[in-house]
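In the design runs reported in the main text, the only information available to the sequence generator was the tokenized backbone. The following block is the verbatim input for one such run; it is reproduced so that readers can re-run the procedure and compare outputs position by position.
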């Protein structure tokens, strides 16, 4: 099996396959020297994802590096009013992990890479760039540029593209990446300041018609909080990330009268796109190569990891001769359904909810959130959706 990309999805797939005695070649462009120099990105790990990490021995490695967060809160920025608090403990009968783990992608891939590097069935090729592939009835042939700069050809039964949103596998197959890109970029400012003293909890969604934001807590040292703000398309990166501009923005968000300790910042573009197909013959897409969405709701990495485990089970069945490769069409039906009906639908809705400008609709949304949080039955249903447990249950029903 050839897996392209040692991001969270490629690593989980390689580990889940190797655990079932499948030999995997895992190709990663980054090397041991720069693997950890990646922007932090994802970090909220939902309960169902924690169960999957646990299966491959990853959970116990990342738990000490993260923050267990059972709660999240919705706020209205005008008047700093708390609208609703949701508690994952409503899911205590649905999962062994009734909380999210705030643990950044970079820590997850660092720990998973150690597991992959130590596994006898994973041939981990770092500093190796995948460039092209071809397939025939008997298998696939991947072309890679090795650390010495030479082109090598690798043969495998299947090839899985887990190399992120710019997937070469997807492009080589000519598969459309349908959807849209938001015109505005999001500014992420990382601050060493304990926002809990102002009433915030580890995860906060703050709605405002002019400047919505998200506020999340990450384990240090030093402990950091990420504050996300929308920006206007005409603003330059230079103007947005000037220290005085970021301080002024933070003071408008939370007037403390003292400069914040800014420890990092970056700007990112959010896309809402799903590949038209997740599979063509022996080439398969998983994770960001198959679907991308705005980070509001923390679903990209989580749903990608869910792809990986779903796919691993099917590939193992095929290689053991227990299933024919039509199960890969089921993978596509299940995971594409989740991408369109759950992750896309919810992340688009989440952004609208935070940025809603119509006062009457804002009021209605806030009333709905209050009512949902106050009723344990409705709160559980809401959390089953927001934590993607419902998406997994629904996918199981798809034949
Ligand atoms: C600011 C931000 C916050 C986010 N927060 C969350 C969150 O809280 N929760 C969540 O679930 N998701 C979140 N996401 C989304 C999440 O980061 C992605 O969905 C996730 O990283 C996708 O994982 P992946 O393994 O599919 O791809 P990637 O993480 O993109 O990994 C792809 C890997 O492939 C390698 N690669 C690429 N091209 C090649 C090549 N040609 N040859 C060899 N190797 C190659 C790359 O170096 C990389 O290691 C966030 C995203 C952003 C931008």
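Verbatim output:
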């Amino acid at each position: 099996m050839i897996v392209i990309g040692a991001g969270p999805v490629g690593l989980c797939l390689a580990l889940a396959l190797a655990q079932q005695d499948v030999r995997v070649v895992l190709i990663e462009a980054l090397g041991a020297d720069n693997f950890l120099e990646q922007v932090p990105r994802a970090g909220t790990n939902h309960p169902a994802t924690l169960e999957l990490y646990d299966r491959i021995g990853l959970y116990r490695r990342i738990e000490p590096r993260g923050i267990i967060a059972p709660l999240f809160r919705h706020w209205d920025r005008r008047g700093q009013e708390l609208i609703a608090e949701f508690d994952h403990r409503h899911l205590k009968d649905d999962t062994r992990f009734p909380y999210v783990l705030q643990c950044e992608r970079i820590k997850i891939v660092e720990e998973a890479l150690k597991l992959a590097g130590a596994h006898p069935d994973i041939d981990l090729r770092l500093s190796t760039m995948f460039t092209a592939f071809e397939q025939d009835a008997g298998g696939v042939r991947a072309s890679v540029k090795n650390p010495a700069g030479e082109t090598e050809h690798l043969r495998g039964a299947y090839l899985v593209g887990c190399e992120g949103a710019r997937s070469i596998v997807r492009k080589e197959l000519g598969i459309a990446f349908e959807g849209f890109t938001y015109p505005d970029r999001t500014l992420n400012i990382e601050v060493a300041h304990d926002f809990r003293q102002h009433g915030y909890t580890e995860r906060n969604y703050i709605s405002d018609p002019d400047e919505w934001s998200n506020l999340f807590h990450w384990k240090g040292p030093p402990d950091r909080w990420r504050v996300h703000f929308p920006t206007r398309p005409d603003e330059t990166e230079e103007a947005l990330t000037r220290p005085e501009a970021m301080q002024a923005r933070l003071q408008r968000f939370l007037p403390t009268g003292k400069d914040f300790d800014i420890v990092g910042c970056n700007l990112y573009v959010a896309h809402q796109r799903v590949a038209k197909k997740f599979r063509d013959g022996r080439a398969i897409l998983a994770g960001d190569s198959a679907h991308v969405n705005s980070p509001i709701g923390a679903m990209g990495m989580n749903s990608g990891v869910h792809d990986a485990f779903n796919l691993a089970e099917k590939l193992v069945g095929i290689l053991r001769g227990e299933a024919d490769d039509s199960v890969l069409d089921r993978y596509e039906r299940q995971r594409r359904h989740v991408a369109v009906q759950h992750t896309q639908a919810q992340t688009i809705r989440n952004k609208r909810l935070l940025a809603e400008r119509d006062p009457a609709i804002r009021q209605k949304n806030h009333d709905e959130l209050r009512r949902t949080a106050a009723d344990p039955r409705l709160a559980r249903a809401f959390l089953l959706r927001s934590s993607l447990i419902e998406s997994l249950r629904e996918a199981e029903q798809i034949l």
